[in-house]
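Researcher: Batch entry, complex prediction.
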Amino acid sequence: MLPTGILPVPPFATARMLALDLVINGLIIGVFYALMAIGLSLIFGILKIVNFAHGEFYMVGAYTYTLIALAFGVPPWLALPTAFVAGVVLGLVVERLLMRPLYSGYISWGFLRDEYAVIVTFGLSLLLINLVDKVIGPYAYKGPPLTSVSRISLGPVIVSGHRLVAFAIAVAVIVIVALVVRYSYWGRQIQAVAQNRLGASLAGIDTAKVSAFVFALAGGLAALSGGLLANIFNPTPDVGIFPAVKSYVIVVLGGMGSIPGSIIASLGLGVLESFGGVYISYQYRDTFGLILLILVLLFRPQGLFGERVREV
Amino acid sequence: MGPVSILKYFGCAALAVAAGLFAGGGAVAQEPIKIGLTVTLSPPGSVSQGVQVRDGAEVAVKMINDAGGVLGRPLELIVEDTQGIPEKARAAVEKLITRDKVIAVTGEHQSSAALAGIEVAHRYNVPYVNTNGWSDVIREKGYPQVFNPGNFNSRVAIAAAETIAAMGAKNVLAFPENTDYGVGLAKLIGDVLKEKAPDVEYRYETLDRAAKDFLPALLPLKANPPDVIVEIMLPPAAYILINQLYEQGIAPTSKTLIYDASGIADYPDFWQNVSDSAKYMLVFGLYHPKMQLPELGRQVAEAYTAKTGFEPNRLLFQAADSVFLIAEAIKIAGSTDPDAMIKALEGIKWTGARGEITFSTEKGGYKYHQWLDVPYVTFQITDVNQPVKDTKLVQEAGQPIDLSLIERPN
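Model: Structure tokens for the complex:
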């Protein structure tokens, strides 16, 4: 009997095939991480807070997609936008009711601002998890697939049909979001508020509207991610914890508030976890990102693509 | 004070005493016997299991109370959620014993939580009926308060090893979850295989029960798939694992079959979460509708279906038996005195929902206070969305496996 945690080392030809498999699957999972992390990064960029309920937006999207499709017989391709809309609506409600105090009295908050954000978002996370647990129930629900093709061969690599379709949608959405933030009217306003909230408001930008837009967009992206992965990661009330933790690591790795940084860190983490899980140990898979995080914090605390900030 | 006043005084006093006596007498007669139930009702533990155990225990309590209770007193179930976390299980048992004053604790269905809970029950000398903690270590502790009417890892290990050996498998991989139950069972299967089929190459890879993506552990198997993959996980992680094995074309195939050592195929949410990937899976089953049940088992099954709308499953019977055993122990002991109840359980010979239950008193191993003759079968799922009653029995209780019945994909 071989000891636990050690898989046999494959021969060279097989190793090359395995490496290809690991790269492709690592990139796919990395794109899913990115979809979550971008929203978190945007919120940090605008509000300078970490949203600890971000995973629950993912959970809401996963349940919305699954239950609408299963309970009402709505085709999955229609259920998916509904998940996005659910995330947007939840984002708007949370921003208006819970986040608005953070910047409506912007100057007077002082040091209590961060404590408020931590407590409120943690509380919201616990509330949503327990609400779904009691209302919908604790059982897992597998979402319907977006395609009836169960497996697709990409050369020697086999990928599930749903995983590949979800990947393509996620890539398209990430590109659109990146273009919107970079070039659109709203995107420029987001950049301005992220750089200097007070300065942006003096220049006539409605910073409250921008914050609401960002929260809605972040909620929608996380919920869309949940919907896309509902067929792969069978939603349960705590399903958002796993992607949220990954997102926190990614946002710090990539640089707080940096979208390109988040995307590159996501893809890198996905591939690193794939290779590390095979060639080091699957059991320590989740620690690779954390080790990388410690190294980045030690040697480049602003993250891979973040900028040093001087405060006076 | 005049004579009328004295009469009034004594009259009022007599009424008050009488009222007190009747009220007090009634309260004594109706005072419930409290039983503690520790289950997982929220993640990260297996909520699927916890809900089934809770429902099964409630069915048994209702049946007992409808029949007049125990020693003229009704049973009251006090439920605590442990989340499957050992520290919470320890705190839950502590609370049940010290604050709620339960006379026995039962319900635990996850080994890590049971191992924490029995320490408290042992310290307070309170009977602890372990409903479904499979880890042998629970028995090896040798605590006189702990009784095990459920299944145990050694039994599954022997069943799995015999099936693997009979199938002629040469290369076997187990995926246990990272718990006392999972890792303990994976090691035991290896130990038994060494004896029964020394030529089999066996290894295991521990998976995190809270993880969602198992592909890095599965992709290396594509080049050299094993003959049998032994799944030792609980839902929802077990469902995700089975689905990802199927997605990657690793199992089921003409070469590789999945052996479910956790017996998850009769869970109410099973088919909602697995679909095509569970076809051809071999399942270690502690209950199958084709098994012969005692009269009590049939009554429990009917009451459960009426209560929940679900088909019966093995956890229901185990939970019901756990509660019935506590009730029987009280009856035999004639009181809720813990020492008398423990003595009663040690000598019990009682036909429950699954068969005649007795507890071994052989010390120094997994047999201590264990019902050794827990019946089991092996069945194969031969179609998608197949109810357990329609699955193919490839090994009946107490019989060797019939390999000719096993189907494989083309």
